[in-house]
Amino acid sequence: MKNSIAARQVLPFIQWYGLMILFTLFFDFLLHRLQWVAVGRYLGYIGTALVLLSFFYSLRKRKIIASGSPKQYLAVHEYLSWAGSILILVHAGIHFNAILPWLAIGMLLIVVASGLTGKYLLKKANETLKEKKKALLAAGSSPEEAEKKLFFDSVTVDIMKKWRTVHLPITFLLGILSLLHILTILMFAK
Questions:
Q1: pTM of the full predicted structure?
Q2: Residue 159: partners with Cβ closer than 8 Å, 6 or more residues away
Q3: The Cα angle at residue 23 between residues 18 and 27, in degrees rounded to 5
Q4: How many whole angstroms separate alpha carbon 137 and alpha carbon 146?
């Protein structure tokens, strides 16, 4: 289990996700401690802007933007989304008083988790699985024995391959919920 894909790739993913939550709690605590709670409202604007800027990666990936390296756009997408998500979570705080913010924050957490899955887990997990299989075959195991020994790792990789089926529709739903949140704020703000 020590060398399993779950231990080598899933654990770092959980650490990054946990770090996002810890940063959020720390910044929210700091705002409350310094009595700057009103600043949280503006962090939502900044966080949303960062997340929207991160979508330049999608435009580059679909060749709407022709210049620049897709790899660089992906790196910018990952960091802006992660930082924007922290700011949005601090903006939300624990002051949810309606269903719409709860839904939007839930979608945000799922989008971040699925994005981290794509970044940190899938590519490395595929490579690790292939290396392990190659090593077992080189050591004299039959293909059937190698498959049997790698069953848990194979199941882990197969589950992770479905990350985009969650990431894209939930990102779209997050966008709709965020837009509804913004519209209701504009409509009912005093």
A1: 0.74
A2: none
A3: 150
A4: 7
